[in-house]
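call fold target=4-hydroxy-tetrahydrodipicolinate reductase
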Amino acid sequence: MGNDIRVSVVGAQGRMGSSVVSALAAAEGMTPALAVTADDDLGVVTPDNTDVAVEFTVPDATLGNVLKLVEQGVSVVVGTTGWDDGKLSQVRKALEKRSGPGSQSVFIAPNFAISAVLADVFAAKAAPYFTSAEVIELHHPDKLDAPSGTAIHTARAIASSRGQARCASMPDGTQGNTASRGQVVDGVHVHAVRLEGLNAHEEVLLGNAGEQLVIRADSFDRSSFMPGVLLAVRKIASGDYPGLTVGLDTFLDL
């Protein structure tokens, strides 16, 4: 117990946060520290009681929470989506101000499910070999953001891979009202479905003349995210990843 990683959960009252609390209680080498809800003062989470904080709240609150925790000297694993380049830049600057021996870490994951991370990697590798690629993400109706952070991350990975391979722009002869074509992320169309009965699902469709490749990842239960969360906590607690790290693939031998 003395060498256990002390982990506090910010957003412990939420669906994901409560699942993380349960996973930590069952995990070897980890000790649940504080369970922080929306009504609590985030200032209670300090290096005196926490080695790593896990943040699962809502997109409107997550940046402020992360910056506050960094200011207080606590490393953070973040599962809340809604991050963009501007917000990531603010986190990097906050970490740089506190750099030094034993410097802090912030890890942000668009998705903690191993299946989703692998689908993202596979899609990026396959994208240069196809003329067209589109992303469809499907979630429960209570999800606050659309498209999902995972889908945006996937689209950016596809676009980056195609750009490095100097692929031509993807064909799209749509005219008139193009709203049904979904959000365009770096040239890749992304479609969001919100349907009762779903949890978290993503399809990447890649097409050539006469052929199609479909890469699909399905998370049927929140338990699918917990191995990824625990892996990230262990990696960040090790001190081997100072600064900002984005993407669970960083910790996988891919």
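return ok
DSSP finds six helices and eleven strands in the chain. The chain has a mean pLDDT of 92.
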